[in-house]
Design goal:
This protein is mainly alpha-helical and about 130 residues long. The protein has one domain. About 80% of the residues lie in helices and about 0% in strands. The chain contains 5 helices and no strands. Helix 1 runs antiparallel to helix 4 and helix 2 runs antiparallel to helix 3. The longest helix is centred in the first third of the chain and has 33 residues. The relative contact order is 0.19.
Length: about 130
């Protein structure tokens, strides 16, 4: 069994953290865009506010969990694996429902989904799964 102390394992977690940080930065940009539009009198919905804040919160939680997983917390690792798969599907799935949101909002959210989807490939790869096997 491999441990989380292995250098390649820590590099994989480092890459995951970079993508999660990008997910957070993109989520922040979406929330700021919604705020600016609201301040300047454009129409924004409560869905846009809630979704933007929720995605940003998920980025913060996922980053924190990834840090715990990098230190060997199996439960945190499993949660990161789940979040990294579910969030892109949820983001894209909801955005594909006609009339739920505007095209520009869906496109910005899709960029967030791409960043967290990249994490799914890293944390579900053989290197990290091996570190937590057994």
């Amino acid at each position: 069994m491999e441990t989380t102390n292995h250098q390649a394992t820590q590099r994989a977690f480092g890459k995951a953290k970079i993508f999660i940080a990008a997910y957070g930065a993109l989520s922040t940009a979406v929330l700021i865009t919604v705020a600016i539009l609201a301040i300047t009198g454009h129409t924004v919905t409560s869905f846009m506010w809630g979704r933007s804040a929720g995605v940003l919160a998920s980025a913060a939680v996922t980053y924190w969990l990834t840090g715990l997983a990098a230190r060997g917390a199996r439960g945190a690792f499993l949660r990161v694996r789940i979040i990294s798969i579910v969030m892109p599907l949820a983001i894209i799935g909801v955005d594909l429902i006609p009339g739920v949101t505007t095209a520009w909002f869906a496109m910005l959210q899709a960029t967030c989904a791409l960043a967290i989807a990249a994490v799914a490939f890293i944390v579900n790869g053989s290197r990290l799964r091996a570190a937590f096997s057994g």
